[in-house]
Amino acid sequence: MKLPGQDAIARQAGENLVTRRVKLPRRVVDRPVRQVGKRLLMALGVLVLTTFIVWIDRSGYHDNADSALDLLDAVYYATVTLSTTGYGDIVPYSDSARLTNILLVTPLRLLFLIILVGTTLEVLTERTREEWRLKRWKANLRDHTVVVGFGTKGRSAIQTLCATGLKKEQVVIVDPSAKVVEAANAEGFVGVIGDATRSDVLLRAELQKARQIVIATQRDDTAVLVALTARQLNRGAKIVAAVREEENAPLLRQSGADAVITSASAAGRLLGLSVLSPSAGTVMEDLIQQGSGLDIVERPVKKSEVGRGVRETEDLTVSVLRGHRLLAYDDVRASPLQLTDRLITIVRAGGAASEGVAE
């Protein structure tokens, strides 16, 4: 099996894999072009208003060139006054013109400068503000979930996790495509642009502090490399990966994945079950779609259930997790239940027992 250094999606034209950076979700603000356009319109409005004020009181101004003040002279005077150039060739000499300059033109000049300086400062401080947000994000990030690949599988996995109570702030997307990361940002997720088979990219996602890792790449060989790198950086995190071909599942487990889902085989089994019984297929699809109808969840044994049989639990229990052993509901070793056991149960969506999934 070939082991390329990057995912197939990274080969799309126009993508820059050299730039591996963290992109935080943008706050709801206008685009830079729109912001500059608004400020230009405001500045133009101030200029027009100043010209109008000078034109109304034009008899109180003196032009060294020809004494008379026309519309062009009024625009010229407003421009050099607002920009604080002040050549002195046109000056107010009447009391009314000077009073107008004090009460109206001077405040408009200050407003004009604030608009220009504000635009400049915003451009200069944008980088500093983003770096500050990034440092604060890194400092507060703990026990989060890293999702490698934001395609159909990655999105579905995140939807399921969020349906069980995981906050968007606790999810970090890693993908080699800048456009994909921008789409993740638009949905409120933090994204890291880069090849997830590289340790420096995963470190930017703070993977060493992550609690669980979801690998949903487009290629099985890429998933193997990502699992190897992730396990090397974080020995205690739960790693769940998806593969297309079932023959690659053992290799992925050897690479450090705790659970491997074969997407093609799972879809094929669901298709076969739906052919035999459409209703059974509908129930299975409902079970794997978290947050609606019936949910299958993992939860701890309650104190009131300790010592009872599997069939005596409050929910419909299908398996018992005891240590590293998964016991079926009809296994004689499953009963009686122990306090350290965890139950795989089927509950109604939104039930109290669903808390076990988000742990």
Q: How many beta strands in the DSSP annotation?
A: 13
Shape: elongated
| Beta-strand content | 15-25%
Low-confidence stretches: 1-19, 352-359
- Annotation field: number of helices: 10
State the distance separating the first and last CA atoms.
Answer: 36 Å
Main beta sheet strand tally, sense and closure: 7 strands, mixed
Give the secondary structure arrangement, pairings included.
Layout: E1 22-23, H1 32-56, E2 61-63, H2 71-82, E3 90-92, H3 95-140, E4 145-148, H4 152-163, E5 171-175, H5 178-186, E6 190-193, H6 199-204, E7 212-215, H7 220-233, E8 238-243, H8 249-254, E9 259-262, H9 263-276, H10 278-288, E10 294-300, E11 316-322, E12 325-328, E13 342-348
Parallel strand pairs: 4-5, 4-7, 5-6, 7-8, 8-9
Antiparallel strand pairs: 1-6, 2-3, 10-13, 11-12, 11-13
What does this structure look like?
It is a single chain. The protein has 359 residues and is an alpha/beta fold. The protein is 43% helix and 17% strand. The strands form 3 sheets. Strands 1-6-5-4-7-8-9 form a 7-stranded mixed β-sheet, with helices on both faces. It has a 4-stranded antiparallel β-sheet with strand order 10-13-11-12, with helices on one face. It has a two-stranded antiparallel sheet with strand order 2-3. β7 (212-215), α7 (220-233) and β8 form a beta-alpha-beta unit. The radius of gyration is 32 Å and the shape is elongated. The two termini are 36 Å apart. The relative contact order is 0.10.
